[in-house]
Amino acid sequence: MVVEKVINNNLVRSYNEDNTEVLVIGCGLGFKKKPGDVIETSLIEKIYTIQDKKTSNQLIELLSSVPNEHIQTANAIVSYAKKALDCKISDNIYISLTDHLSYAIQRYEEGINFKNALIWEIKKYYSREYKVGLEALNIIETRLNIRLPEDEAGYIALHLVGASLKVGNVMESTDMLGMIQNILQIVKYQLNIEFDEESIHYERFLTHLKFFAQRIISNKSLEDDNEELIKTIQKEYKREYKCALKIREYIESHFSKFLTDTELIYLTVHIKRIAL
Predict the structure, then answer these.
(1) Tell me: domain 5-51, CATH 3.90.660.20, correct?
(2) Given 3.90.1640.10, 3.30.565.10, 1.10.1790.10, 1.10.10.10, which CATH number is that of 68-166?
(3) pTM of the entire structure?
C-alpha cells in the first residue's frame, strides 16, 4: 500500500488491493511521509476498511483526537472479544468502543464516575459479554495503568451487544435489555411460574428474546408465511398464545411496533417449552 493522504503522524489514508479506501494507523506511520510513499508494513497496527464517506469522516475525526494508546487498547479489547464471544462483531465497534473508552478514561482522571444503573441486568442477561467487559478492565489496567470501576465492564458489554447483534448504538442495546427484562416478567406473571435459569429451555428462550428484540428494534420482524400453523398454535397452546398476545400488546404500546403472526408463533413455542 502507498500513502494517499497523511492525516497525522500516526494515521494515513490509503487503498487496499481491492481498491477500497482504508485508514491505516501506526506509531510514526505518517511521519515525514507524502502521497505516493510506500507504507512501512512493520509500523502498521490496524487497518480500518471504509464503508462510506460518513464512516471515513467519523474515523478520521476520532483517530485524530484520541491518544494512540487509547486506540491500541480498544483494538486489543475488540480482538479479545472476537475470540471470546466467537461471533461476528461489526467493525463499527472500533469507533464506538474507542470513543467510549477514551471518554471513560478522561472521566476517571477528572474523578467522575458514572454508575451503571443496568449492571445487574447486564450481568444476568448478557453474562458472556459482561465477562469480556471484566477482562477488558484488566487489559486497560495492564496497558494504561488505570483501573476503571466495574460499572465500565457493563458499558463495554453493551457496546459488544450492539456490535454483535448489529443494532445501532448503546441506547438501542439498552432498549433491548429493557424489552427482554419486561417480556420475562410478563411470562412469569401470566403463567405464574418461576424460571429454572439453569435449564436449557430458559437459555434457548433468552437467546430467542435477544434476537427477537434485535428484530423489533431494527424493524426486521419475521414475515408471515404459514396461516395454518398460527391456527394450530392458537388451538393447541391457548395459555401460551394468550401470553404471547400480552407481549404483543407490550411491544405495540411501548415501541409502536406490530408483531407478525410468525413472531407470535415462535414466542408461543418457546413459552410452551419454558413452562413445562
Answers:
(1) no
(2) 1.10.1790.10
(3) 0.68
pLDDT digits (tens, 9 = 90+) for 81-117: 999 988 788 777 888 888 889 989 988 888 877 788 7
Helical (H) or strand (E) element with 68: helix 68-85
How many CB atoms are closer than 10 A to CB 22?
19
- Residues forming CATH 1.10.1790.10 domain(s) in the chain: 68-166, 181-274
- Band (pLDDT 50/70/90 cuts) for residue 245 is very high
Determine the Cα–Cα distance for residues 131 and 137; give it in Å rounded to an integer.
10
Q: Is the CATH number 1.10.3720.10 carried by domain 181-274? A: no
Distance CA 27, CA 11 (A): 8
Residue with cell 472500533: 94
Cβ neighbours for 254, distance < 8 A, ≥ 6 positions apart: 179, 182
Confidence of residue 273 (pLDDT cuts 50, 70, 90): confident
Kind plus residue range of the DSSP H or E element containing 15:
strand 11-15
Tell me how far apart the alpha carbons of residues 53 and 55 are, in angstroms, rounded to a whole number.
Answer: 5
